[in-house]
Amino acid sequence: MIVVLVVASLLFPASASAQSGGTVAPTARSFTAAPAIVTEGGTVTFAAKATPKALTRVDVIAPGKPAVRVKTGRVGASGTIKASWTAALAPGKYTARLVVTVGKSKQYFRQALTVGAKAAPKPVAPPATLTSTGSKIFPVQGAFNFGGELSRFGAGRTGHIHQGQDVAAAEGTPVVTPIAGTVHHVAYQANGAGYYVVIAGVDGRHYVFMHLQANSTVVAKGAPVLAGQRIANVGNTGGSDGPHLHFEIWINGWWATKASAPIDPLPELQAWAAQA
């Protein structure tokens, strides 16, 4: 994903809280973020000039989204501060807000950030045939386990039930599609599925792979895939509490109609694992 940071160099007037006890108000003179264009997972350097010993941080904010807080520490005796941050944001418009604090007094600098959508991967070359269902292949190509009761289909979750089976594995373990088909959907959900892929199988069912590792997806929407073809890696993105693959099987489409529904994938996963 290409993350484009458009730095508007917007310097806002200081907004200081009431001072007490003779506290010296912080003085910030500049705030920059560089480079302006980075690849997702690349490094952005925040730099500022401000009152020595002032405490600083950068909040990356957007309406309706939780703030990403970057601790930049205290300003050095030279009056400068510099800190690096790994850019991993969904596409959209953001504001990078520098907060400079001395005692109870604060000053803010703001810069506009725009995160661009990633370039589509090169389409996978069409295979010779996608018509045979054959024996399906276990999706996690490495050491794994099925976890406990909370990993099961139907386990309770806040506001919903678990619609798939979690397969715990080390981050970076290859994930393959169990069946030939077509890539139906590729997306990112920050507070839920993380990076995920949906495959429309040639058997008429949809196969869903969630919490994939950032920058590991190698298929694009609409691309044909063969059984056993790598689509991404096991990750820990979105609302995940440890590296694992969240795997779902849907009948009658994936969220297509009222008849669309997930089924318990564990029996099939166990069967595929046994034949590996």
Automatic annotation (TrEMBL):
Question: What InterPro entries does the record point to?
Answer: Cell_wall_metabolism_enzyme (IPR050570), Dup_hybrid_motif (IPR011055), M23ase_b-sheet_dom (IPR016047)
- Please state every residue range assigned to the domain named M23ase beta-sheet core: 161-253
Q: What is this protein called?
A: M23 family metallopeptidase
Would I find Endoplasmic reticulum among this entry's keywords?
A: no
Q: For this UniProt entry, which residues form the secretion signal?
A: 1-18
Segments forming a coiled coil:
none
- Keywords for the protein's UniProt record, in alphabetical order: Signal
Organism the protein comes from: Solirubrobacter phytolaccae
Q: Which Gene3D superfamilies match?
A: Glucose Permease (Domain IIA)
Gene Ontology terms, MF aspect? metalloendopeptidase activity
Q: Which SUPFAM superfamilies does this one have?
A: Duplicated hybrid motif
